[in-house]
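[audit] Reproducing an earlier prediction to check determinism. Same input, same settings, fresh worker. If the tokens differ from the archived copy the diff job will pick it up downstream; this log only records the rerun itself.
[audit] input (687 residues):
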Amino acid sequence: MTDRNGGGVGRSAGPKAIALIGPFGSGKTTLMEAILARTGAIHRQGLVGDGTAVGDAGAEARAHAMSVELNVAETSFMGERIALLDCPGSVEFAHEAEAVLAAVDCAVVVAEADEKKVGALQLILRRLEALKIPRILFLNKIDKSEKGVRETLALLQPASSVPLLLRHIPIRQNDIVTGFVDLALERAFIYREYAPSELVDMSDDVRVNEVRERYAMLEKLADYDDSLMEELLEDVEPSREHVLADLVVDMRAGLVCPVLIGSALHGHGVGRLLKAIRHEAPDVAATVRRLGLGDGPETVLQVMKTVHTGHAGKLSISRVLRGTIQDGVELMGPEGSVGRVSGLLRVFGQQVNKREPAAAGEVVGLGKLDGAATGMTLATGKQVPAQLAPLVAPEAVIAVAVSPAERKDETKLSAALLRLAEESPALRVSQDEEASEIRLAGQGEMHLRVALERLAARYGLKVETKPPAIPYRETIRGEATVRGRHKKQSGGHGQFGDCVLEIRPQRRGNGFLFEDAITGGVVPRNYIPAIEAGVQDVMKRGPLGFPVVDVAVKLTDGSYHSVDSSDQAFRTAAQLGMREALEACSPVLLEPVLHVSVTVPSEASSRVNMMVTQRRGQLLGFDAKPDWPGWDVVEAEIPESEMRGLIVELRSATAGVGTYSSRFDHLAELTGRLADQVSDRKGTRAA
């Protein structure tokens, strides 16, 4: 096989790592099962629905009948080792693929002829394009599709920025798909259930269709190969070697995305897919070049997943990019040593077993590297390694406040949550000091549900959840002048503090201002900081029960006692005066308003506008998402209290692909019934 310049493009050697990725429910885990069965890694093909598959074997995955984390398995085909990395399809668990994609050689994108899943497919293909990862599209469930392959490709093409290049066409008999034709090899095959397809002669009808579709494939390849274009223009039949070489070069360069067909459930098309992976997918050497890793004596690995197992402890599932990893060796991360490897493990679904040292290209579990984290680049030697693909966790879109059902479990809960966040970096654990809450934030309802289920199953923790507290504030509308006077005599030295305060509102966002206007020494200067501290004590919780903002306080007068005055006496006097003043200045509740950017397919924009309006929001406008035809970004301002459930409604309206980002924008007055409800919940009412 030769490339366009006459050089070799023979198949890549060495172990390969292949990501299986695709929209939710497209059949990725079933395809992995079919590959393992076809290659003899398992005795027979299990079923995801029956809980007999290697993948989705975790309790949460089986309970919800969906992938909720990365599935890893290893096999070999025609003497070559292949690591399969099955990534969840739900948008709530899409972050699981990020660290995986950094280190794989090729992605097999599993899709089907479902219009509702085109948006999800587009998110996946665009991400692969951005990362420059070669990809093959496996058109699954071909036996159930009522659409022809041309119609299906027209449906799916908007999801890809590069041509979806049809490599296979189905053979139909009485409207049933019985086999396929490989357009590159010009050979026809009949499917055999859970067995290799059988080579057959093409009928005249099939031959006519094959000639037409093959020419269409060659025309697309000719867009990137002048010599092939010349052959087509001169009606010269290109050699099979020429065509295969072009397919390899163009796929590896990301110029085209070849499309193979089959049915993972029945094992159809699996053999052809495996041969494409063996002959056409690049290997670790190409991945090293893509990541910009040069030569060197150190062993270098990329961590793709962190798992806390019951018996093996912390496990860092990693791809060896260069060198060989040995047990007991010390590894360096971005901030120094992450520890010594305590066990090399082979990962096969939920099973882990000891293994021999792992060489470049292999996927291996590294035991008990306490300092390692998902997305890290690790290396042997004394130098801190450059981070090849730092993992950026997505912004959380939903949160709950969690607390242990039993107070004695508080410390245990914190430790367990941090472990869960290690396994799933898109989980955010934070402590809200103001509300005295531990918050768990993530990518959706199911994402959080799975985390809470793991708290119970793995750590025996019963927790209570509630919506996070909204950080309401309050301010004043009016002005007042008050005297704060504290006098107490109880034998010996008494307590005396006296101050006159002028309180007025500030413009929104200007914060707190304290002014000292004392003249003539009526209040000694050494007591003024105590007065300011007393004022700020009261501002931590105003008449409506929330922190007070945007208030100016001027100290204008007062008096003192040479014996009984003290810092504490003046602080108490200021507190008394400030409480009286706030009550007299028409306190008003303020609610936080967020600037929200909602990204959705264009057909859902009108529904998003309704969502914003129904949530007391204000539409600021919308525009097309740059370089994403068919997508819009809607800008709006929405009160934080109205954000609850937005992501659920948004995804329901967009077949799971809509999302948003948000940031605090400003505080706005909240009055009337809504303000009364907030005050009632807080246990206080406005004066």
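[audit] rerun output stored. Observation attached for the diff report: Residues 74 and 83 are 4 Å apart (CA to CA).
[audit] end
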